[in-house]
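hey can u check if this looks right to u? its 224 residues, i copy pasted from the old doc so theres a chance i mangled smth
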Amino acid sequence: MHEVVEEARKEQKSCMIFKVDFERAYDSVSWNFLSYMLRRLGFYKKWILWIEGCLKSAMVSVLVNGSPTTDFVPQKGLRQGDPLVPLLFNIVAEGLTGLMREVVNQEMFTEFFVGEKNVPVSILQYADDTIFFGEANMQNVKTIKSILRAFELASGLKINYAKSCFEAMGQSQQWIMQAAGYLNCRILSMPFTYLGIPIGANPRRSELWDPIIRKSEKKLARWK
């Protein structure tokens, strides 16, 4: 991600960045979509039944004025804290990667090419942290919104556009505001943080890393 942003800024390449925020990601996953993705990825039928059994074995109740209601079985969502959940969520998120791969193959989306070997980059994902890259044009913006809507209908994962952010290099500020308005999201301010790492700033400056070093020292101090 840092390489993409750095190259786009230094060489004034046309590049857009859309940082997506999923709304209550783990709680809204469709079980039917998860089963579909397991079949698409070639998991054995008995294995899929085991996974479905783990999901449907949970019983929950709601506290109303301090008193629990009758237990019931939830119809969607993944239980946070379950060691299987991050892996299952990655399988669900693979559906979004597949959609992006398809629109690229259909020439409906223009990727961003980085480095001497022109490596194509269109989407980077780490669990529910997702960022789209591509050439800064309105066709790409419309395509992203379309596939996110399709993914939401299929998987149950809804995008929180109010917390999502958009930025572009090689385009005017007016165009950036127009694209962000179409996506109904905020403007991404540079530098920004992704997975705790600052992106878009000079990594050679020590003061950039000071907050991360202090945070790490604070965590290490508790280990004694």
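The longest strand covers residues 15-20.
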